Amino acid sequence: PTRLLDVGKSGPTIRLETEFSADFNEHYLTLSHCWGGADVPILTVGTVQKFSAGIQIISLPKTFRDAVKATRELGIRYLWIDSICIIQDSQFDWRAESAKMREVYSNALCNLAALGGENSHSGLFFDRSLEQLMHLRPLWIHKRIPGSPFVSSYKLIDRWKQLEKFEKSPLVKRAWVMQERFLAPRVVYFGREELYWECKSRMASESLQEDCCERCYPSYFLKTQYKHFTDAGFRNNWYEILDSYTQMQLTYPSDILIALSGIAKDFQQFNLDEYVVGMWKRSLLSDLCWEVDMPGRPSTYRAPSWSWASLHGRVT
User: Fold this and answer.
1) For the chain, which residues make up each domain, given as ranges?
2) Heterokaryon incompatibility domain: from which residue to which, for each copy (predicted)?
3) Is there a smaller number of Cβ atoms within 10 Å at the N or the C end of the chain?
4) Is residue 274 very low, low, confident or very high in pLDDT (cuts 50, 70, 90)?
């Protein structure tokens, strides 16, 4: 990243780090969060020097404060938060940094995801009932005792209800966050009732075993399979990505291609093809056979009319 927040080990302040040596190789974390219209601190041309001198942690919204705490507790020195590490009133800087999302997220040690909040004031940590997560062990009784050879304590978990809470979170419906999930090597989701973990091979939660979380883990996240793909495999996988991506929400519809650019760059290292406005050169003829469910045309130009990105709506 061009900039990182140096959270240190303790203390009431953090600061924006803007200069790094050529051999910089420190671990850092990233944060996925919903802005949600909340009043969040942003980096501007006029506040770069101020933030570099120091930022009072108490002045940050709760999600940011919790992210700083989590970063320190994990023994990591640096944290990347989009609103404070990208100059928000500079179109040049925003464009340049947005194009680096693949590098920012894929090189992070882990991504912290604020699953339980609708805005940056919700936080990562919540009061919760441990009963939902309590694991009860069986109690074995000698088989010579009349009646059942054993009894066991157990609880029933509606796994679909648990997964539905994940899927309906405002965070995972965001297009930018889909890209962040795809790029990050590891993600820890802080939900209101439990934690979820995700990497490039599987997903799990506190209450559900790995195989129970498959519904929330898209097949295209499993990058270990990419090296075995034929052109047809890459093509079908890209279509799955587009189907999911075009159902996601964007605050600014003009971001439709740039919020996908990190995924495209990552995908390109496997298929070794030329990216063309949301499609691929080798499969361009079939890529042009797209259809949009309930299409809507944006008021401003964002892509050629032959590209799916020129319209609103789910692409198939």
Assistant:
1) 1-137+153-217, 228-316
2) 28-180
3) C
4) very high
- Contacting residues for 313 by C-beta, under 8 A, at least 6 apart: 246, 292, 293, 294, 295, 296
Q: Compute the distance between CA of residue 148 and CA of residue 141 in angstroms, rounded to an integer.
A: 9
The answer to whether residues 87 and 44 touch, using CB atoms and an 8 Å cutoff, is yes
Spatial CA neighbour of 205 closest among 135, 261, 284, 254: 135
Q: Is the pLDDT of residue 205 over 50?
A: yes
Q: Report how far residue 8's alpha carbon sits from residue 93's, in angstroms, rounded to the nearest whole number.
A: 26
**pLDDT at residue 212 tops 80:** no
- Enumerate long-range contacts of 290-298, CB under 8 Å, 24 or more apart: 290/242, 290/315, 290/316, 291/315, 291/316, 292/246, 292/316, 298/253, 298/254
Distance (Å, whole) CA 307 – CA 148:
66
The reported pTM is: 0.88
pLDDT value at 147 more than 70:
no
Burial of 133 (0-12, 13-18, 19+ CB in 10 A): middle
What DSSP state is assigned to residue 152?
-
Q: What is the CA radius of gyration of the chain?
A: 22
Question: Is the C-alpha dihedral spanning 25, 8, 105, 110 positive or negative?
Answer: positive
End-to-end distance of the chain based on CA atoms, in angstroms?
Answer: 34
3-class DSSP assignment, residue 165: helix
* CB distance 163 to 213 below 8 Å: yes
Span 222-258, pLDDT tens digits: 777 787 888 898 999 999 999 999 999 999 999 999 9
